[in-house]
Amino acid sequence: MDIIKFCFYGVVIGISNVIPGLSGGTMAAVLQIYERLLKALSLKGFKRDLKFILPLSFGILIGIYGFSNFILIALNKVPMITGFAFIGLILGSIPILYSHAIRSGKHNIMNLIFFTLGLLLMLVFITLSKGGHRISPAQISVDRSMHFYLLIFATCIVASFAMVLPGLSGSLVLMLFGTYSKVIYAVSHIDVKILTAAAIGSVIGIILSAKIISKLIEMFPSATRFFILGLVTFSAIAIYPGFAFNKEGMIAALSLIAAASLSYLSTRKH
Length: 270
Hints:
globular; 12 helices; 77% helix; single chain; mainly alpha
């Protein structure tokens, strides 16, 4: 039963990594597996967590490859409904994230500072993104120089840091470096050379970032969790698609309420 659950969690995380403005780390936090995932990715007790990481990884691959085109079409056809559904998932998780943060330390000036730093970092990231989540996955011509593959490799390392950290979007980082459409092209067309460069960069970035964040949680549990809470709290703004008082707007509002309720009720027991 856990295998099916972790596979489903992986699909959700995989889908979130496709959407510029949404973070796989945010979804892992929403699903209450973030710190367990960090430990597994940082290779601490990796063998012990294989029953967790293997189905999760399989689900992530399904989410990225199987749903990438569907989600991007939904973002272009019904951006308001899709965006509000993901915003609802994020908002519904905030109470339990706050509960975990406050459990590891009292309200004090340092925790408030780190929470504010998380908010400000997301604000900077949102400003840089400039609404990039409405990008269309059009076919593109792909350069084949060594410089191009090195660029894919390097930007995927940086994007992986953003992907692991809740609130920040690896897809948006790729967009800022101009490689997002090329990676999406490679995924949809199974371009082995581009995918290999992207995969190697992503694995290196994920392991390094997981080790760093795990160490920070171990050394400064309260401050790190409040920082993450600040990132997640403001991350909903990054995918805000706008609102209109029409039929789609009403459905979007209902999707937000439904998603927030589902997120809250599914994590409350933790």
